[in-house]
Amino acid sequence: xxxxxxxxxxxxxxxxxxxxxxFLQYCQEESRLPRTILDCGAGGSQPPxxxxxxxxxxxxxxxxxPKQLELANEYARHKAQLLHIQQGDMRHLDFxxxxxxxxxxxxxxxxxxxxxxxxxxxxxxxxxxxGGLMFVNFLTVNDSRCGQxxxxxxxxxxxxxxxxxxxxxxxxxGEPDLLFSDMEILYKEDRVLERIYEGEKIRQxxxxxxxxxxxx
Amino acid sequence: xxxxxxxxxxxxxxxxxxxxxxFLQYCQEESRLPRTILDCGAGGSQPPxxxxxxxxxxxxxxxxxPKQLELANEYARHKAQLLHIQQGDMRHLDFxxxxxxxxxxxxxxxxxxxxxxxxxxxxxxxxxxxGGLMFVNFLTVNDSRCGQxxxxxxxxxxxxxxxxxxxxxxxxxGEPDLLFSDMEILYKEDRVLERIYEGEKIRQxxxxxxxxxxxx
Lengths: 216, 216
Prior knowledge:
The structure is a homodimer. Chain A has one domain: 3-Layer(aba) Sandwich (Rossmann fold). Chain A has 5 helices and 10 strands, in the order ααβαβαββαββββββ. Chain A has helices at about 5-10, 20-30, 50-55, 65-80, 115-125, and strands at about 35-40, 60-65, 85, 100-105, 130-140, 150-155, 155-160, 165-170, 185-195, 200-215. In chain A, strands 1, 2, 3, 4, 5, 6, 7, 8, 9 and 10 form a 10-stranded mixed β-sheet that branches. In chain A, helix 5 links the parallel strand 4 and strand 5. The longest helix of chain A has 14 residues, at about 65-80. The radius of gyration of chain A is 17 Å and the shape is globular. The interface of A and B includes residues 25, 186, 190, 192 and 196 of A. Chains A, B: InterPro entries: Methyltransf_11, SAM-dependent_MTases_sf. Chains A, B: Keywords: Methyltransferase, Transferase.
């Protein structure tokens, strides 16, 4: 396979993280910002940073889980893309303040307790340039799994995914507004979706934010 | 501009009709169906059929409004894509029964009264092959404009967009289920979004469906 064919193939992927197409659209409209972007929770078998790379962004990603990190890097090698995804903890980002035009975390922050989510969002704000854009989404109390598992308080629950213990923190749809009180909310979407997953109908609840850091 | 550059440019567009990326993803997974697709309400300055064309689909579209039709065809000429968008009425589709693998109508059907929506959905079902997929979305009563304008009954309202009279029909989030009682609902998303539009914060409510026609 030559380089051109590889590039075309990357372009033709449809990324399953659909709301990030909207974020990309908002990013594309911010013509004064450098095309630098950080993904917090960047791992998995189809890393969405690849979409941003295809559109010319310089990408960086941090991923806590070594297995998810390896899957993402395998994908990047296969697509011959330099995505720069490394092991890291979004509660302590190893990037300079105001160093990125854009930052996002998709389906990721809610795997921590709410205090850790707050710290992670603070870190994302710190590394974002003035005028920069951020996407973050949250699980909501409309999710059918909300209430299941040991309750740690504030709709934080200890649950199991494929026998592996995980934290899921659920938010009232307006609750994350408080995390962005120093930013401009450009877009917010409260959504409840029903789909077939492994033969069963499931109901999921999310609220997605696109927010902008104040200009200097 | 040579042909290759034109093709790349088309590929690099981000289509504002974000939920259609998800529909495209579902379509791509149906490997046994022919790549033929019809858009009902296909006009406008960025016709999403272009996205499907880029992914190799044979496209057809109908558009009621000659002005929107012209905008779409201008786009297609600019991108050097053959999209086959024609003037037409989705209540009476001029296509053979079971002739399309896929059909969709995005942000369109709710500009008619509910009886006409029902007739249009019936037509879309008719031209769809057994096992084929359909995307349709609806305005919901959660939209901030629901209740405004002359009430024609059943949350059907006569309103004005830029001084032009239009019908908007609003649905309870579960109400369109009835239109798909003979189909399998693969995906359904009830969403309320807030965004800045022309300097004002607006609230919109939609429910999106991806449904499958029963196999023969």
